[in-house]
Amino acid sequence: MKKRFFCMVLVVLLGWEALHQMNGAGAPADGLQIVQVMNGEGKRSDLTAVSANRVHQGNLLLVNNDYPVHPEGITTDIISLAEHGELTGGYTLLDTGIQLSKKVALQFSKMVEAAGEEGVSQFLISSGYRELEEQQQLYEQKGADYALPPGYSEHNLGLSLDIGSSQMEMSRAPEGRWLAANAWEYGFILRYPKDKSDITGIQYEPWHFRYVGLPHSIIMRDKQYTLEEYLDYLKQQQSISVKVKGIIYQISYFPVNGSTFIPIPAGQQYDISGNNMDGVIVTTHP
Ligand SMILES: [Zn+2]
Q: 147 alpha carbon to ligand 1 midpoint, in Å?
């Protein structure tokens, strides 16, 4: 056992040496993989460099009154929905200026198609990505009770959208009921549920959905966690293993302080998202 530990330390030290040679004295490049290390069970992992700004990028970012959007967190694939007819079948847009992350629009489109097959088809997107100036105007018009200051709204990320029904109020509409029951299957969460406003700081909003991706949305539904609660839970647990739709995922929290090396199990697919607070969530699966 002692010998194995020694070997691991040696490999890590060699890795650090290689790193400094490749980057001079500067920080390691984000995503740089250095060496493979073995854990106590003999499983191999790649050490991957994660830079400090990764804390503020990804699908799981917490954005609320305490944690604003960082410029690097704004999704880089924002599109104007009216210009992408291939992504807007099955629903209407309140106006032609609505923008959203292309990745999220694609998932929304799949979700709406599934709803349509069950006869629920009067969806309307009333708001998507908002630039900071637009959020500022909204804040000035509606006031602090009804709008968030610029940078503190999830709409400033590109991952959230307000969905209505063209027939009636969302709280009574079949579209609202369908989404509350099914959105989780498509990577979306009802971000501000009725009984959680003490945690989210926002009143019930049956229209506001946020993309977090799978498997996270399904875990949050099953545990009835808000994003705040889910991120706290991951931080407490440090690592969880869950089976979702037949796939076993390992989800781990790592604190990030400056540039940090994170072990990713060798040969696994992985996704890294910041929590927008103090670390990253690494999700791996075969
Ligand atoms: Zn909203």
A: 9
DSSP string, the chain: -HHHHHHHHHHHHHHHHHHHHHHTTSPPPTT-EEEEEE-TTS-EEEEEEE-GGGGG-STT---SSSSPPPGGGS-S-EEEGGG-GGG-TTEEESSTT-EEEHHHHHHHHHHHHHHHHTT---EEEEE-B--HHHHHHHHHHH-TTTSPPTTSSGGGTTSEEEEEESSS-TTTSHHHHHHHHHGGGGTEEESS-GGGHHHHSS---TTEEEE--TTHHHHHHHHT--HHHHHHHHHHHSEEEEEETTEEEEEEEEE--SSEEEEEETT-EEEEEE-SSSEEEEEEE-
pLDDT, one tens digit per residue, over 132-149 is 999 999 999 998 888 889
Using the predicted structure, report yes or no on whether residue 48 has a pLDDT greater than 50.
yes
Tell how far the Cα of 154 is from the centroid of ligand 1, in angstroms: 7
Per-residue pLDDT at 39: 74
Q: What is the distance in A from the centroid of ligand 1 to the CA of 150?
A: 13
129 C-alpha to ligand 1 centroid (Å):
9
Gap from CA of 206 to ligand 1 centroid (Å) = 9
Check 131, 185, 205, 228 and give the catalytic one.
Answer: 205
**Statement: the pTM of the whole predicted model exceeds 0.85:** yes
The pLDDT score that the predictor gives to residue 262 is 92
* Average pLDDT of the segment spanning 52-67: 96
pLDDT of 165 over the 50 cut: yes
17 in catalytic set? no
Interval 29-43 mean pLDDT: 73
